[in-house]
Amino acid sequence: MARWVRPALCALRLWGPAGWRSLYTEVRDVPGKGHQGPSPGRTDAVAASLWGVRKASCAVGLAALNSGITGGRRPVSSSASASSIFGSGGNGKEKLFLQDLAELIRAGACRKAVVMVGAGVSTPSGIPDFRSPRSGLYSNLQRYDLPYPEAIFELTFFHHNPKPFFALAKELHPGSYRPNVIHYFLRLLHDKGLLLRLYTQNIDGLERAAGIPASKLVEAHGSFASATCTVCRRPFPGKDVWDEVMVDRIPRCPVCTGIVKPDIVFFGETLPQRFLLHVVDFPMADVLLILGTSLEVEPFASLSEAVRSSVPRLLINRDLVGPFAWRPRSRDVVQLGDMVHSVERLVELLGWTEELRDLMRQEAEKVRTVRGGLGTALLFSCDCLRAQGRGSGLPLTSTGNSPKQLVSYQVEPKREE
User: Is the pTM of the predicted complex or chain greater than 0.70?
Assistant: First the structure.
């Protein structure tokens, strides 16, 4: 017995209690201290390495355990044993590809889709993400004279100097940017009755602008749709705030004169109550779509592992992130690269290209009618709009030059033949 007990105990010792804790935690840049979080100094690369070492050590222990139990006659495969605990690591027989997932959706096998989106969904609309070098939101905050970029979303600094936040809010005013093809793909999911819930980290409101109802949204980091007095906690509609912000005034409560802050989640604040819907939504989901997020900020990031292990998970992203990198499942599908092109590919496999084209044309006509102009500039990728124009009777007038850059187009109404 000792020949297999000792290796097993060794494996458990190597694993340790810390091995069962989440390796991904919120990462923040603090001046002079570098990356700070609940696990200081633990980078994603280190976390992945630790996971690999611990997984291998447990596999060795399990192999010794199996050998001891069977007396060496017919040992159970250590890889199979490890897979039963850690997942197949993407090498199982049920490995899925994008086309397989599209076929499952078309066949009606996936009808309760939960979607998680981050900043990468809005960058094709021209909104910078937070952390990209030179182009991210934090990199563009130098002009606000902040002690450090994150201060713009900290309550202490906000109470001391709210002007930088409201200057940024003015730039992100709803209507300054338009939804792109990714948002309208999510709208199409809703229109087809396939969207159980959409969880977004974004505060730009483009999901609402695309026509996704508030009942289907969980805006994990808040939104500009409502506001609250920071002193008396009196609620206000978002429009009251924008009336002041757009004329460069700090919105004040008419009762106590306190600053009225949009219901955006600042560092240290609790998430909106609707975020608790994840307790019900994720166990019900039969497919999970994750688009344009780094899966670094908790507790949002942990939701990626909240669905059942049998549920397919699709990551459409620029990079391999989160559990898709360090703990993949056999039914994971990963599509890396340009966000718009990846979504277009999925739409094509689903057979929804014509429907998506018509939806986007209808929404463009609504905006044009409201604004009363000849046409309205909508931001899409050139390739996407060219695909929409083929055989659709949807004339497109380009104002851009490069076929790969984000360009502005005038979308003209469909002419009768």
Answer: no
